[in-house]
Amino acid sequence: MLESLLEFLIQGVVLGGLYALFAVGLSLIFGVLDVINVAHGEFFAIGGYLAFGAVVLLHLPGAMGVLGAAVGTFLLGLCVYPLLIAPLKRRLGGRPQGPLYLVLTLGLSTFLQSSLLAVAGGDYRRVPPQLTGIFDLGVTAVSYQRLLVLGVAALLLTGLFAFLRFHPQGLAVRAVSQNPDAAQAMGINLPRIFAFTLALGVALAGVGGALMAPLFNVYPAVGFPLTIKAFAITILGGMGNPAGALVASFVISIAESLSVMVIPSQWQNLIAFAVMIVMLLVRPRGLFGRPVPR
Amino acid sequence: MLELESVCSGYGKLEIIQSASLQVPDGAIVGIIGPNGAGKSTLLKTAFGYLVPGAGRIVFDGREIAGRRPDEIMRLGVGYLSQAGGLFAEMSVHDNLVLGGYTVSRAAKRQAIDEIYARFPIFRDRRRQLAGSLSGGEQRLLAIARALMVRPRLLLLDEPSAALAPRFIDQVYATLEALNRDGLALLIVEQNVEAILAVAHRVFVLDLGQNAFDGTPAELRASDRIRRLYLGEDAA
Prior knowledge:
Number of domains of chain B: 2
CATH architecture of the largest domain in chain B: 3-Layer(aba) Sandwich
Structural class of chain B: alpha/beta
Mean pLDDT of chain B: 89
Mean pLDDT of chain A: 89
Low-confidence stretches of chain A: none
Low-confidence stretches of chain B: none
Strand order of the largest sheet of chain B: 6-7-8-3-9-10
Largest interface: A-B, 19 and 28 residues
Structural class of chain A: mainly alpha
Order of helices and strands of chain B: EEEHEEHEHHHHEHEHEEHH
Radius of gyration of chain A: 19 Å
Strand content of chain B: 25-35%
Strand order of the largest sheet of chain A: 1-2
Shape of chain B: globular
Distance between the termini of chain B: 37 Å
Radius of gyration of chain B: 18 Å
Helix content of chain B: 25-40%
Number of helices of chain B: 10
Order of helices and strands of chain A: HHHHEEHHHHHHH
Largest sheet of chain B: 6 strands, mixed
CATH superfamily of the largest domain in chain B: P-loop containing nucleotide triphosphate hydrolases
Largest sheet of chain A: 2 strands, antiparallel
Number of strands of chain B: 10
Oligomer: heterodimer
């Protein structure tokens, strides 16, 4: 029993690394731009395809695949604010924008999925792992590739939080998240911070896609279920709170992993959404979010 | 220094300012007063670029600034303090000051922070405290201190005395007068008429989005009509 508990706990922690890479970026984007990015999963898929292109088609090392995914999705993400969100914002002026952003990013999600289907086809693509082999922990065994995902996630997220805490640009991102008008009065260029934050958030998803490509098949809609799960994670952590999303990622992944000890595994995926629904009913601001205005 | 000429502005189709003009000379303290809903804050937001004027000219140091973004206007040497102070409540006092110096070099920022700590020692002691946990008066002083990080030449303030206890109002205005003596020009929107009349060199009364009076505090006090209509006093 104890061995099973430890095994599922370790699997949960490893899965939490992927969830965190994905959900922290989504939460950061929401916190700064007030945009729920439904297209987040498509950047995960693009990251996977970029890794596939680099490693399988161009025969580059696996690390180059991950780097290419990071740079590629970052550059693509840089275009989203000026080309899509800013024009809508200008047209709407001071009117409420949230629902329209949701529809806009849903449109972007469909557009990107269809583009991937047109360019890469619907076949499942597989990328060779950056690391091969299994690490035996005694109670369980974890593939080196999964540990790599966890290690890179830990590294990137530590870097991200250090950046947000100490770097002037990171402080500017947090300032915009807290009070955009006051941030402008500090000389902070809002459109630039919006574009940068969106690119940073989707690049984290892109790296996740590249790291997970060897573990899952890559196909155009691969990221969409993850987007839906990330909504549950960000609601649990508190919308727009990246640190909350980090904690919630591990809460959900460990809960999912441990749940198979007591419920059939086909119910495992419901855990996140059950938590989301309960959280919305009981504490809409999540574990670490700001109070919801009445 | 700053000149607004026949400015019209508002929110979408709702026009609040219907042709207002004012001037802030170098080194002056200029007050804007008027009844609630007169458009005082709207005019200040328009001057700083939060709102784009529908008509009129806004000129700072000979440069047309109407339609520019607030961050661009700030870089020209204009600071802005909103009614609530606009602090980043979930950041420390120190981080708020660092953000105040966002547009200057690291060395200039360090020097400015040292100067702020020398001028406001309370903030050196509380540098790690969250800005949102300071008292109302301290928050207002921190907002002023933060605006000084880039050594602006003109500071726009929206009701600096709002929601403050009298002793803090005195402290805030004493600080503003000291800054003015050092050469900083101030354009202050204020509901607290006595506070602004005590320090201003010139006062504009705004009513229904238009100029209703323009003169010195002494001239304002001498005008029975203005005192009756806008200061709520009976004519002598």
